[in-house]
Structures are given as structure tokens and as C-alpha cells.
Write the C-alpha cells for this entry.
Amino acid sequence: MNPYEVLGVDRSASAEDIKKAYRTAAMKNHPDRNPGDHKAEERFKKVARAYEVLSDPSRRDAYDRYGTTEDPGASHGHGMGGMHDIFSGFGLDDAMRAFMENFGFSSGGSGSGVVKGEDVTVKVDLDLEEAALGGRREIEVERNVSCGECSGTGADNAAGSETCRQCNGIGKVSSIRNTLLGSFRTVNRCHVCGGSGKIPKKLCSNCRGRGFEKKKSTIAVDLPAGLSAGHYIRLRGQGHHPGQSGIPGDLKLLINKIDYGLFRREEDDLVYPLTISYPQAVLGAEFAVPSPDGDSLRIKVDSGTSAGTRFKLKHHGMGRLHRRGRGDLLVEVDIHVPGKVKRREKELLNKLEESPSFKVENS
Ligand SMILES: [Zn+2]
Ligand SMILES: [Zn+2]
């Protein structure tokens, strides 16, 4: 799916243009305006997904660079199944929720009345090796999880519960909303029972009726090679649990910064600055340079090398995000010019200057 095509905007479109295009397309295909039209519903879901990608700078950037609409961590199958693939299980509810949230409707109620917990964002700093080659990170996170005592109901197990009178046990209340954009039937979660349809006779003493409790956990996250600062990896359903019958939000692992050490990054390539002496530049020499793998690599600087010359060590750069292979390691030569010289050195330089190979034609 090309999200730009879906929304009918070009690649240089501003955030405002994208939002406008999304609004127009979502309004046109909204299920309440096209009852029973399955194709409109599919288009509605599609534009919501496209907007989800293009409204998020790091995902838009990832799409522009790599042509994928997934989160940076998503395409690597590594035991999480499809858990954090943004497109698996993206249904009408998700599209409805996105629509409601983006246009200021009550976020308490999506089409199905399912309550989703808040996302948890954890920032991590990577070292060069992790960013270049990928790896596995264990992160500690404190989240709200479903209460172990009452299984999230919020009710004291022994005392039991009774049917909510507000919603007659359905857990939802529907209403018609009139807005500038038109009229919509919105189904909201019942505020009295929180969507469970039941009122506990006595609250659970462990969670005081909230249905969730705080818990620290350690989670292992696989990092694909080639991540950049600003990218994040989304782990679906690993965020805060809202309690009751809701579903947990997502855990977002945000790449805060990357320590490149002695290197500089240029897309998938790494640049290593190597300072050599003037005689070495003229006569040529061999050097050992570090690589992101931790190995030391040999490089031969040819005779007659000028400052700024780059020598390429193929496939020793950054891993390519979502693709095979690696970028290159570029060794960039700088030539040391001494600030002060001894008398004897000055004599030698004066001789060199008169010597034909060292003559430079200039005015
Ligand atoms: Zn509880
Ligand atoms: Zn209720």
C-alpha cells in the first residue's frame, strides 16, 4: 500500500494537507454515511491506515526511505508473532477509533465500546554495534496490568456484583452526535460501570475497584539492524491495561540517541576519519581502522593520496533496515600539517619546495 496514493497527496505534502486529505476521504467513506457498503468500509479502513503512517513523522520517514509502512521493528519475525505488525488485526474498530480521536470526538467510545489502555513509551540509547548490527535489549517497564486478585473486574470476588442500571448490563450507551462534519451515531462506553455492565457489590481491595495494578516487568525486545534516532518499535498490546474488559495499549520503544563513537553516519554508510602524516600521504602506507563489529580492519592508503580522499571497505557499515546487506565503511583521509617545525625540518621543507615534484602552478 502506498499511503500517499491512498490519500491522494504527493510526497511533499505538509502535515496539514495530509490531515485535510484524510478528513475528506474518511468523511466520504464513513460507515455511517454508507450503510451496508462493504467497499466504502474497506476504503475507510485503508485511509485510516494511510493516515496512521503519514501522520507519524518517524513512520513517514521510514516509508520515504525504505518503502515500508510498518514500524521499524515490525518485519522481523522473532517470537512475537504478528504482535507488533501494525497491519495485523487493523479492523474497523481501529479505523473508527482513529477517526474519533483525530477529529475530537469522545475517545471513550469507539464503535465497539472497547476501551484501550494508554501506550507506554520507553526511550533507549543505542551504541554503535546495536544500531549497526541489531541485537536484543532487555528493558524494564512499569505498567498497569490486569489486577491479579479480581482478574480486572474491580469487584471483590466473594461479594459478587449486580447488573448496571444505567446500561442494563450492556456496557454501552448510544447517542447521536451533531457536529460540523455531519451527524454520527456514536456508541459510548457506559460511564457508570466502565463498560463491564456490572456494578461490584464490594470493590476489590487490591486494586480499589480500578481493575488494574502497577507491575514492573522486564521485556526482551529484538532490535533490527539499521535503526536511527527517532525510530520506534511498537509492541502491540504491551502497554497499560485499562482494567475491566478493556485491552492494553501498546509499548513503544523509542530510539532516543545513538552513540557513533569515532564514526559519523551517512545513511547506511559509516565514515571513519583517519589522520595521516604528509610523508605517508605522499609515499603510501597501511593502517588499522576499527569497525562497528569490533574488529580491526587493514586499509592501504595509496601513494599520492590527497586530503578528503575516501577509501571504501565494502559491507562494513550499518545494516540496512528491513533489507539485506550492509552499507560501507568509508575511511576519510585527513593530512596532518604541523603547526611548528624545527630548524632542520624547515631546511628539508625548503629543499622540497624547490624540488620539481612538489611544484604547484598558481599565481
Ligand atoms: Zn482487583
Ligand atoms: Zn453500565
